[in-house]
Amino acid sequence: MSSGVPFIYYTVLFAVTSFVLGAVVGSFLNVCIYRMPLGLSVNEPKRSFCPNCKAQIAWYHNLPVVGWLWLRGRCANCHQPIAVRYPLVELLTAGLFLSVWWQFHETWVLLLPYWVLMALLVVATFIDFDHFIIPDEITIGGTVAGVLLSLAVPPLMGETSHATGLFWSLVSAAIGYGLLRGVVEAGKLAFGKKRVVLPEPADFTWTRKGDDADLVIGGETDLWSEFFNREKDQLVLQCDRLTLAGHQHANVALQCYYNRVVLGGTTYRLEKLDTFSGRLSEFIFPREAMGMGDVKFIACIGAFLGWRAVLFTIAAGSLVGSVVGIGLLALGPKARSLKIPFGPYLAAGAWLWLFAGPGILQWYLGFIHH
Q1: DSSP state of 213
Q2: Strand order in the sheet with 275-286
Q3: Which of 24, 125, 205, 318 has its CA 20 to 30 A from that of 211?
Q4: 221, burial (CB in 10 Å: exposed 0-12, middle 13-18, buried 19+)
Q5: Which residue positions in the chain have pLDDT lower than 50?
Q6: Residue 268's CB: how many other CB atoms inside 10 A?
């Protein structure tokens, strides 16, 4: 009996340490989730600040989960609410770190790589939900990290040789990138344009906004850059009337690119325009099957988990995304119009693979062979 006490003691100690470490990392991930899409440094300022009043948060108010509960979810300076998502991200990361330790502590060399992957998946998920992008720091940086960790820790690829671990990590990243890049290109060919005929003509205005612009159609505002993923992407505005560069036009089609518009063979550079406006009857906009961030994200997942995980993650992510999409269709027109990022579903597929994927795959193969 006495020999069992130390085992239980160390089990509890390492479990608690993993949980606390995950919560601390989750606190930093909140910084990344807020700052990275805005182009802000995650290092400067070093201390977290309130997103409302910008006052720096005291260290004792910034303790993971505890600080938010202590302040009852409000800023100590301006007393504005602090989103409940902050402690939820910390708790999620803590739970994932604990789950990784519980699943893989007997192969302790895998703990650090899998903890790094958990952090990347959490950041990518929440940024993609908020902004429909996954920054290159996460995707490309994560791919590099996965390749280097597979070189240093070959068991990450199920190998014993460092060279072989490196090889399979690179191959897996390439397979993931190639598969989803193929989906993107095929989707562009099949569904690359969408025509929208307005029930009634609507006023529109294009207005410069720094390096970007706002396009307002019937009261709805979109960033100009959101319409263009490629240099050749074209947005066509069918205008009942148009005011452009001081001239009035009627019943014309305005061909729009990210940095220019073309009307009747005349090109107008957008950097020389402050605004143009008119009235629309219909428009045709370019679209993608998915963003390139998703393509680079699956390469990152492959670099950490291998080529089998790539196939499983794409299949599982597509299945989860389809179920969610069907659910949104059942909720009505407003829910149907919601944009659905694919990155979180890839993250869900990677999580599922890490904790249960090989078992699910074995069951599936046994099922289809019967």
Answers
A1: E
A2: 220-223, 212-217, 193-209, 275-286, 235-244, 247-256, 260-263, 266-269
A3: 125
A4: exposed
A5: 1-2, 336
A6: 15
* pLDDT at residue 1, rounded to an integer: 44
Give the C-alpha separation, 192 to 288, whole Å: 6
pLDDT tens across 300-328, in order? Answer: 999 999 999 999 999 999 998 888 878 87
Q: Is 54 left (phi over 0), alpha (psi -120 to 50) or beta?
A: left
Q: What is the pLDDT of residues 161-186, one digit of tens each?
A: 999 999 999 999 999 999 999 988 88
Query: DSSP letters of 297-365?
Result: HHHHHHHHH-HHHHHHHHHHHHHHHHHHHHHHHHH-HHHHT----SHHHHHHHHHHHHHHHHHHHHHHH
Cβ(130)–Cβ(360) below 8 Å: no
Backbone angles phi, psi at 26, to 5 degrees: -60, -35
Per DSSP, the residues of 115-139 read HHHHHHHHHHHHHHHHHS---HHHH
- For the chain, give the percent of residues with pLDDT over 90: 60
Task: Sketch the domain layout of the chain as residue ranges.
Answer: 1-98, 132-191+290-370, 193-286
Q: Which of 87, 34, 85 is nearest to 64 (CA)?
A: 87
Stated pTM of the model: 0.82
Residues 6+ apart with CB under 8 A from 270: 208, 213, 258, 259, 260, 261
- Sort residue 282 into left (φ over 0), alpha (ψ -120 to 50) or beta: beta
CB atoms within 10 A of CB 158: 11
In 336-353, which positions are buried (b, 16+ CB within 10 angstroms) versus exposed (e)? Answer: eeeeebbbbbbbbbbbbb
β-pair partners for 205: 216, 277
The CB density around residue 302, as the number of other CB atoms within 10 Å, is 32
* Separation CA 276–CA 255 (nearest Å): 13
> 202 - beta bridge partners?
280
